[in-house]
Write a structure and sequence with these properties.
The chain is mainly β and 151 residues long. The chain has a single domain (2-138), classed as Galactose-binding domain-like (Jelly Rolls, Sandwich), CATH 2.60.120.260. Helices cover 5% and strands 43% of the residues. The chain has two helices and ten strands. It has helices spanning 22-25, 106-109, and strands at residues 2-4, 11-14, 39-40, 47-58, 61-66, 74-80, 87-92, 101-105, 118-127, 135-144. The strands form two sheets. Strands 1, 3, 5, 8 and 10 form a five-stranded antiparallel beta sheet that branches. Strands 2-4-9-6-7 form a five-stranded antiparallel beta sheet, with no helix packed on it. The protein is globular. The two termini are 21 Å apart.
Amino acid sequence: MAESLICNNTQSRVSSVLNRAVKQFGKKFMFDSDEETCWNSDQGESQWVVLEFPQPVKVSELRLQFQGGFSGKSCKLQGSAKEEDLKHIVDFYPEDNNCLQISFQTVQYYSSPSVITTFCHFCIRLDKCMYMVTIFSQIELLHSQLTLLVQ
């Protein structure tokens, strides 16, 4: 069973907030588990979310939920240790719907050593955003103690 790595000590930053309306569309709404609230970016073809963990974490799964029509078409997960340059982990291509999506699991990509690397700093980049705006209802980085080795 996968457990969320995001905790009260996880710091987050986003590329923008629609009309700077943080109380209505701020980043905190990505983590409140309420499908009625969301982070809404301002306009721009490329958006990002950065998560900074208090200690290194191993990510085995990324779950995203967009509001339909406002997803990134081409996305990537990057990670790094503190004070280092971001390293590419995985590209993913979310569907344009409002369902909770699992964008990668270690089981599918286990042969790629970068996916199972432990980092403190993660960046989710969203490119080619529909309508130049991204709306996240939910985002989770998870780790499963039970990882299957695929050969």
